[in-house]
Design a protein that fits this description.
The chain has 293 residues and is of the alpha/beta class. It is built from ten helices and nine strands. α5 packs parallel to α8 and α9 packs antiparallel against α10.
Length: 293
Amino acid sequence: MKTVVAIPAFNEERTIAKVIIRAKAYVDKVVVVDDGSHDDTVLIAQTLGAVVLTHEKNLGKGAALRDCFEWAKGVGADVLVTIDADGQHDASQIPVLLNAIRMKKADVVIGSRSTRPTGMAWHRWLGVRALDMATRVKVGARVVDAQSGFRAYSRRAIENLVATEYGMGVDSEIIMRAHRAGMRIVEVPVSMHYEGLQTSSHNPMVHAFDVFFSILKFVSIRHPLTFYGGFGVVAILISLVFGFMTLDYYQQWGRVVTNLALVSVAAGVLGFLSLFTGIILFTLITVTREQRR
């Protein structure tokens, strides 16, 4: 069984050597996708014998992971392991992820943080849990750790999962796509360490909004009637309420309250536009799916 490990990296010269050396002991090949680094990340990776794919400029984690999947598919890998370049993951736990794939128990295995990792700030931990709940993909009785980048993918997953996100929302998108495709998703507990690590080049709030809006985009495309229709119905109800208040005030006092009238009109316009958007997207998506069959 051909096993490869892929490491998306951006300015990780401090830690990339340790990650590569430790990962090589458990896989057949290591590939580093350098996402426009300005330091010696590429030089170190090449010196250590890793395959290096480079981006001329920083495109985001999503673009790096797409290259990981494409490369793994191109070399005929049976299992793809992804691991972060900053050293937060323990490469010695790679066999734990591989075992579920080799035993044919899963298509996607997630190295999960069941408790707050050592050195991880409380606000970051609470943000991770909130984003997991927003993803709403469950394994057993709980929502998966959708923000963990420490994962293993079977050949089926390698060949069929395609991510469209460029930013940090790609981890959630991949899990949602795997869940929708009926793939078996398994979590295995792993330890992670954050002491002294700069675990993200993004501000935590920017990261959170990036993931959240990625989730919204995915849901809006997959369930356009529910997403846009639901918003449209709420907006129309608000329009009716404010419209009634405007008419009631006019009947009592003989004049129109401009603010109430404007809210009623604006909400009504947004509501009907949202409903029509949902209907049009639903029709287009349905036709596209029928043509692919």
